[in-house]
Design a protein that fits this description.
The chain is an alpha+beta fold. It has 19 helices and 22 strands.
Length: 606
């Protein structure tokens, strides 16, 4: 009769893992936070196959005793809380005691640890799907080393729904960067399949930002600092000219804990109003220091959602501090009262004595002398007037011919409107874009821009499959201002982009384009690369075939915007090309290339 059962520890841990451990990036986040709470000054992360095969996190923190090492895999076992009051005075990253138990329940975990007060040996523990299979002494250095292998090995559905290696490693790197930016005082190392991605030395926040995002980001950082009784705000915002159309470089931290907050994001966006273009997003790295009793972190297991007791006041303070910073560093229009009112004297003239300027007057100068000279030379010297018959003596025969009566010619009626010779060349073209043609049912209207997109798309798609498209080498390489995710997206699609005519190198953490497709003009190069970057770094990356379609479509769209046909021959050749294409009625984006205006529709207009 009784149907309610108490779940086993293993089932409870797997249920908890569904919230805490969503993908390999979640494992990296939890292990990094544990290492920081353990007082580590150096943390190394080694990834294999985007975390599917192995995740290894090593730190030089305080380590654990043999008893703590065995207990840490038990659910709700934590060293961060002693009583209920501690929940409202959190100074650590973790506190729920669920992470290690959840990780151990869905993977093979090997733990090596040695407490700082242990002299000889440390502790080795192995877990298999939540079951301990080994617990013994081992030789290891002070600190903790945790290796997680075969994640989701016992939950096949979760493993199947993992994305590609590049997508999963992007999530890992994002979690890694958030932790690194919050703790500039700790050195971090990240490797992927044996290749070093980051080797970050301990330093200040500005150095950490430039190490993570690239040296060019340093010149775009504007410091902000505000201290009140409610909150202390520090960090950096990006200059308006560094705003991007993606929201990649936007970070909020409260007490060195990363969080997301749409309300505070609105304050930042409002501070940048009229300073950045529409649909652009400023970059920011903003740290809040606030009394832990006035925030609630215990909302979601990921701990990225936080409630603030005095959120409205913090909003106002944040808005004011950013506006003040932008004005102080002359980013926003402001008056500078500190500049001296004296003239700036060149260094070469500073040691010279000032000399009073002299005004010299020529009493014999006559400003009208030039006109008198021309008048004396006569009126027959102007070649332009002489050519038209002015300034020359007239002949009596010319006057007789002038008054002579001319007989009307029988060539035909006089035309009231003179038609230019080249009028017939453009008789089908309207506004240099729309072609009009007479058909049986009425008038056929062709959008030449969309038609050109269809023609170029078919040519490129049929060509690049067998051989690369023709490319033009740039005299000066074109450097793209990209974040790390966008750089990885370009590198991942390098073979496809090379087939399309984009040849580039990855130097000093950036992309340098050396060649562009020959159909791209210089003025369209920036628009084209921006469109391609958006397509490559989208949230869902398509397969190679869909990606080729997307990239070629973006390419032909940019090229077609400046397309024009002029002569009758060009028009005829263009129309023939269009109708020889498959799907000539629609452009690559699915929009109609041509429309027919019927006689009935024309009649209703009159």
């Amino acid at each position: 009769m009784d149907i309610i059962n108490l779940l086993s520890e293993q089932i409870s841990n797997q249920i908890a893992a569904g919230e805490v451990i969503q993908r390999p990036g979640s494992v990296v986040k939890e292990l990094l936070e544990n290492a920081i709470d353990a007082g580590a000054k150096s943390i190394k992360v080694h990834i294999k196959d985007a975390g599917r095969t192995s995740i290894l996190v090593q730190d030089n923190g305080n380590g654990m005793s043999p008893k703590d090492a065995a207990l840490c895999f038990t659910r709700h076992a934590t060293s961060k809380l002693k009583n209920v009051d501690d929940l409202f005075q959190l100074q650590t990253k973790g506190f729920r005691g669920e992470a290690l138990a959840s990780i151990a329940s869905i993977a093979h975990v090997t733990l090596k640890t040695k407490h700082k007060y242990q002299e000889d040996t440390g502790t080795l523990i192995e877990m298999n799907g939540g079951t301990p299979i080994r617990n013994e002494e081992c030789i290891c250095e002070q600190g903790t080393s945790i290796e997680v292998k075969n994640i989701f090995f016992n939950v096949p559905a979760r493993r199947t729904f993992l994305k590609s290696d590049n997508a999963e490693f992007t999530h890992i790197r994002n979690e890694f960067e958030r932790i690194c930016l919050a703790h500039a005082e700790i050195s971090f190392t990240l490797t992927n399949n044996g290749n070093e991605v980051y080797n970050l030395k301990a330093g200040n926040l500005r150095k950490r930002i430039t190490d993570v995002l690239g040296k060019k980001s340093n010149e775009n950082l504007v410091p902000i600092e505000e201290k009140t009784d409610i909150v202390e705000i520090s960090g950096f915002v990006g200059k308006p000219e560094s705003a991007k159309k993606s929201r990649g470089m936007q970070y909020f931290f409260v007490n060195n804990r990363f969080f997301k907050h749409s309300y505070f994001h609105h304050a930042v966006s409002k501070a940048f109003e009229q300073l950045i273009p529409e649909k652009s997003h400023p970059s920011y790295f903003i740290f809040f220091t606030i009394d832990t009793a006035k925030i609630d972190v215990n909302i979601h297991p990921t701990k990225t959602e936080i409630n603030f007791e005095e959120g409205k006041f913090i909003y106002t303070i944040l808005l004011s501090s950013i506006k003040q910073a932008l004005g102080k560093y002359n980013i926003a229009p402001s008056l500078d009262f500190d500049v001296e009112t004296s003239f700036d004297v060149p260094i070469s003239h500073k040691n010279e004595l000032p000399i009073e300027p002299e005004i010299k007057v020529d009493p014999s100068y006559n400003p009208f002398s030039k006109f008198e000279t021309k008048k004396a030379m006569g009126t027959g010297t102007n070649k332009a007037l002489n050519k038209q018959g002015f300034g020359q003596k007239s002949d009596s025969k010319e006057w007789e011919n002038f008054y002579a009566i001319r007989e009307e010619s029988n060539e035909g009626p006089t035309k009231l409107i003179e038609v230019e010779d080249d009028y017939t060349k453009n008789k089908y073209l309207v506004k240099n874009r729309y072609l009009l043609s007479n058909v049986k049912s009425g008038i056929l209207i062709i959008d030449t821009h969309r038609a050109q997109q269809r023609i170029l798309y078919n040519e490129m798609m049929s060509t690049f499959v067998t051989k690369p498209l023709s490319a033009q080498k740039l005299m000066f390489p074109m450097e793209l201002d990209l974040n790390q995710d966008e750089i990885d997206a370009w590198i991942e699609s390098k073979s496809l982009l090379s087939q399309l005519g984009f040849h580039f190198t990855n130097e000093s953490g950036g992309i340098k384009i050396e060649s562009l497709p020959s159909c791209i003009s210089d003025k369209d190069s920036n628009i084209c690369t921006d469109n391609i970057t958006k397509s490559l770094s989208g949230p869902e990356k398509p397969d190679r075939g869909e990606l080729a379609h997307t990239l070629v479509s973006k390419l032909v769209y940019v090229v077609s915007q400046n397309f024009q046909v002029k002569s009758d021959f060009e028009i005829e050749s263009f129309v023939n090309q269009l109708f020889s294409c498959e799907d000539h009625s629609f452009c690559p984006f699915g929009k109609p290339v041509m429309q027919t205006l019927t006689i009935e529709e024309l009649t209703t207009k009159f």
